[in-house]
Write a structure and sequence with these properties.
The complex is a heterodimer. Chain A is α+β, with helices and mostly antiparallel strands. Chain A is about 35% helix and about 15% strand. Classes of the chains: A alpha+beta, B alpha+beta.
């Protein structure tokens, strides 16, 4: 395949970036999108041009590190895939492909296509846990049965990989799908109840502090989410938030 | 130095309890005076950092990824073992201990493995308390499945994403401590050097990967939780960033490397498709619960398939060779990984491989889909259902069990595994070898500990499925938090370790020089060029089958490659700021040295055991021939300057609770 790549290059957080054009030939259909970028980088190195910087690690769709905005879509064309799971057979020879970083005020660019998503970690630290110390003396795992339906829903919410596609896709750069996934997981489980009110209030507060926008129910995040995290989680978070706001002692 | 494993005396079932009771305590007031560095935030690192911080120590945690949640434990799929016996199928701590020792082909340490089996039950309790959403049955209780090499159902799971759920559980515990200020987290930081002061590990030089700056961090103890080194093969199921640098730097500073040649080649991975491939993807071993592995029984059928003239669905049942069921009737498709991998290689080498490259076998769900479908028909009380209806119902069940794996497979290969059998082939997955540690998980450098895949202790020559997650969390939650006390209790008067000592100065200087060398090298070839060549040498000569001649050649080839690498590698950009190519160069440099040591270790071990298969030592039927008379020991290598000239120290393995037997799964 012969392709024309238009790639965002930016040397550092404070520097001006621009789209640069790189023609490339010899791309194979079976390459993953990131292998295509490896292939490009190898060529660039041979030509003495600094390779394109992008985040990636597991390359099997689970670590959440890869984060490209391809032809105007987070993780590119195709549904329920991360960039690393996207293959070049989705494109055809002669295509021009636009590759940009995930853009949001709360995700500053580090270099080229790599962004800083540490805001997500700070949201988790605001309450995305159950306060139980390691002891070896917790009660037997089967002492609290959890209805299968709730356990399955909690699991579905917990499969969020924290990639930030929801934020990059949202016109408001909202992180509500991300935050609600963790809040829902614990909200659906008996273990999460004691801290439920504090959790939702604190995590939403942190989300606002980080500069993420609010949700206006467009639903684009759900469409682009590589793990298919459901909008239902945002509804549950909103309900929990309202309940906590009205009944919290704070 | 004589190796002392420090396994406590006494009956095997009492050792850990007794030892825990005897470890000197550090008072809460003194814990506040002690600093601990944890490198790596996978299952072992996150759980250790969180637990130590809960206890009151000051913890600094480091990871090279942009968030601790992205460590490669996240990619573990199938499950985690625990001797809960919820299924009432005769499981017990002893049976898990026994299965692990046997599965490891009698090359692991009894004391450590028994402790692992004991604490396995606490792990499940702890994780459930954290809100880890394990799979449950309709009664709301936890569900189990089976893994290779065992005859009970003791594996807890969360679909095909068990590693993700366990890591996010440990990450949440870590977050709680970060929020309290008990753990200071350094993401996008990579350890570059271990600092040893007066013979004790007292800190690290870390690189801030965003700014390129080198930072000095001191502590009273350093825990390396940095995973395995499968990336020495270039193509593996490891993440792109997984590397051996932290462990290798410790090795160069005096930590012995144990059994480095014990590599796990996982039987069920998606086959290699092309030259530009960057990594291989695992298809969980849990699939072998329901999938059946086969190749055509007739060579002409295999040839027709390779030529694209025949479809696997058109091969009659009688013309299929379910070779694992044929060779190992007692365990069938659930034989341990090393056995399954070698059997696949044997069939493909004999000309029965089923993809273009001839290096693939089938993993077929057709029978399972029909079986599940019929169950559903029964449950739903349907009358005279058509085959298509049964199939559709069965596919639903398979989807609920393995949905994400099937989706992953389809995305990569563009083939639908519900309709045609998957193609799989063995790939490098895990490394049983690692830093030598004693019963307290301390390396031969006092104060330097190794946890999880980074150490060698529990899996012998072959790890059983769903045991890596168990070991990572056992070490991090339940072992190291106690055992570091033995070392730290002598350190309560040391005070803060200064970072302006000559040792820190020298360590930082060494790192700077290495970095400068890469940047100013002006070579002509990219880092990947060398990494790929290293991978080829390792896969061909130090992979699934090894021979004396091949290993000697490998050592010579790797030494030549190392020279060429330093002379000709090209790293663009500068040392200031983000430069992933530069970071990769440092990692590959260490992998090259490690590869040489692995070949040396494989060459010296004149037997076949577990994942280490020497062609010279096999039975007429092609089974591995272990030599307990001469090789029932751990090879612990001391660095002397050149990896191939490392000095061997032996830790003899004694088996008091398990009888040494030929491992048979027939």
């Amino acid at each position: 395949m012969d392709l024309t790549l238009k790639i965002w290059r930016q040397n550092g957080p404070q520097e001006k970036g621009e789209m640069k054009t790189y023609p490339i030939s010899g791309v194979e259909e079976d390459m993953s999108f990131l292998e295509m970028l490896d292939f490009l980088n190898d060529k660039l190195i041979n030509e003495g041009i600094e390779p394109v910087v992008f985040d990636h690690d597991c390359r099997e769709g689970i670590c959440g590190m890869c984060s490209l905005f391809i032809n105007g879509e987070a993780h590119g064309p195709g549904r329920k895939v991360t960039t690393c799971q996207l293959h070049m057979r989705e494109f055809k020879s002669g295509d021009t492909i636009y590759i940009e970083p995930f853009r949001a005020k709360a995700f500053p660019i580090i270099k080229d296509l790599m962004v800083d998503r540490s805001a997500f970690d700070r949201i988790q630290r605001a309450g995305g846990y159950i306060s139980v110390n390691t002891s070896g003396n917790t009660i037997d795992a089967n002492a609290i049965p959890v209805p299968k339906e709730n356990a399955d829903k909690a699991f579905d919410a917990a499969t969020c990989i924290g990639c930030g596609a929801c934020v990059a896709t949202c016109k408001n750069s909202s992180a509500m799908l991300f935050a609600s996934a963790k809040i829902s997981q614990f909200s659906l489980l008996p273990q999460g109840q004691p801290e439920a009110k504090e959790r939702v209030l604190n995590m939403v507060h942190q989300m606002d502090l980080e500069g993420f926008g609010n949700c206006t129910n467009t639903g684009a995040c759900e469409v682009e989410c590589p793990k298919g995290i459901s909008l239902e989680n945002i509804a549950r978070m909103n309900r929990d938030y309202l309940f906590a706001s009205l009944s919290s002692n704070k | 130095m004589a190796l002392d494993s420090k396994v406590p005396a006494g009956a095997i079932a009492d050792k850990w309890t007794k030892h825990k009771g005897e470890i000197p305590l550090v008072s809460p007031a003194n814990k506040r005076l002690l600093d601990i560095i944890v490198v790596g935030t996978g299952l072992a690192g996150s759980s250790a950092a969180a637990s130590l911080a809960e206890m009151g120590y000051n913890v600094k945690a480091f990871c090279f990824q942009d968030s601790p949640r992205r460590a490669h434990s996240i990619a573990a799929q199938g499950g985690i073992n625990a001797a809960k016996n919820y299924q009432n199928d005769g499981d017990s701590v002893y049976r898990l201990f026994y299965d692990t020792i046997k599965g490891g082909d009698y090359r692991s340490r009894e004391g450590n493995v028994h402790r692992l089996a004991e604490v396995s039950r606490n792990i499940i309790d702890q994780c459930v308390a954290q809100g880890v959403p394990f799979a449950r049955d309709y009664g709301g209780l936890l569900d189990n499945r089976s893994f290779g090499g065992v005859q009970v159902s003791r594996t807890f799971y969360a679909k095909g994403q068990t590693g993700q759920q366990l890591l996010l559980g440990a990450y949440s515990a870590l977050n709680r401590q970060i929020a309290k200020g008990r753990v200071k987290m350094y993401a996008r930081h990579e350890m570059q050097e271990l600092v040893v002061v007066d013979g004790k590990a007292r800190g690290i030089i870390a690189k801030n990967l965003v700014t390129g700056e080198f930072e000095r961090h001191s502590a009273h103890a350093v825990l390396l939780c940095t995973g395995g080194y499968g990336n020495v093969f270039f193509l593996s199921t490891n993440a792109m960033g997984s590397n051996v640098t932290a462990a290798w730097k410790a090795h160069r500073k005096g930590a012995y490397m144990a059994n480095p040649c014990f590599t796990q080649i996982h039987p069920t991975c998606i086959p290699v498709s092309g030259e530009n491939q960057s990594k291989l993807t695992l298809m969980s071993e849990s699939l072998r619960n329901d999938g059946r592995i086969w190749v055509p029984a007739k060579k002409e059928d295999a040839e027709a398939i390779r030529a694209g003239k025949l479809h696997p669905n058109d091969i009659a049942e009688a013309d299929r060779d379910y070779y694992l069921e044929r060779r190992y009737p007692a365990f069938g498709n659930l034989v341990p990984r090393d056995v399954a991998s070698r059997a696949a290689k044997e069939r493909c080498d004999a000309g029965y491989g089923v993809n273009k490259t001839g290096e693939a076998v089938y993993l077929d769900f057709a029978a399972a889909i029909m079986r599940f479908g019929e169950e559903e028909v029964h449950v739903k009380g349907l009358k005279n259902p058509s085959t298509a209806e049964i199939k559709a119902l069965g596919e639903k069940v398979v989807e609920s069990k393995y949905g994400n794996l099937f989706q992953m497979y389809e995305k990569i290969t563009a083939s639908n595994p519900y309709k045609e059998p998957m193609m799989i082939y063995p790939a490098v997955h895990y490394t049983m070898g690692g830093l030598w540690v004693d019963y307290n998980l301390m390396t031969t450098i006092p104060g330097c500990f190794a946890l999880g895949e980074a150490n060698f202790s529990d899996h012998g020559a072959n790890r059983l499925g769903a045991s890596a997650l168990m070991q990572g969390l056992a070490d991090g939650y339940f072992v190291a938090p106690y055992t570091v006390g033995e070392f730290l209790s002598t350190d309560i008067r040391s005070g803060k370790i200064p970072t302006d000592s000559p040792e820190f100065e020298a360590a930082e200087q060494a790192v700077r020089e290495r970095t400068e060398k890469f940047i100013n090298n002006n070579g002509t070839k990219s880092v990947d060029f060398f990494h790929k060549r290293l991978g080829k040498i390792m896969w061909n000569e130090v992979g699934m089958a090894r021979s004396e001649k091949g290993l000697k050649q490998a050592i010579a080839d790797i030494q030549a490659l190392r020279e060429e690498f330093y002379a000709d590698v090209r790293v663009l950009g500068s040392a200031n700021g983000m430069n992933p190519e530069l970071d990769k160069a440092g990692r590959v440099a260490d992998l090259i040295e490690l590869g040489e040591l692995m070949a040396k270790d494989a060459l010296e071990r004149n037997e076949s055991c577990g994942g280490h298969f020497r062609e010279e030592y096999q039975s007429p039927e092609g089974e591995a021939l272990r030599d307990d008379e001469n090789f029932a020991f751990v090879s612990a290598w001391e660095f002397t300057g050149v990896p191939a000239e490392a000095q061997l120290h032996k830790e003899e393995l004694t088996f008091e609770n398990v009888e040494l037997k030929t491992r048979s799964y027939k």
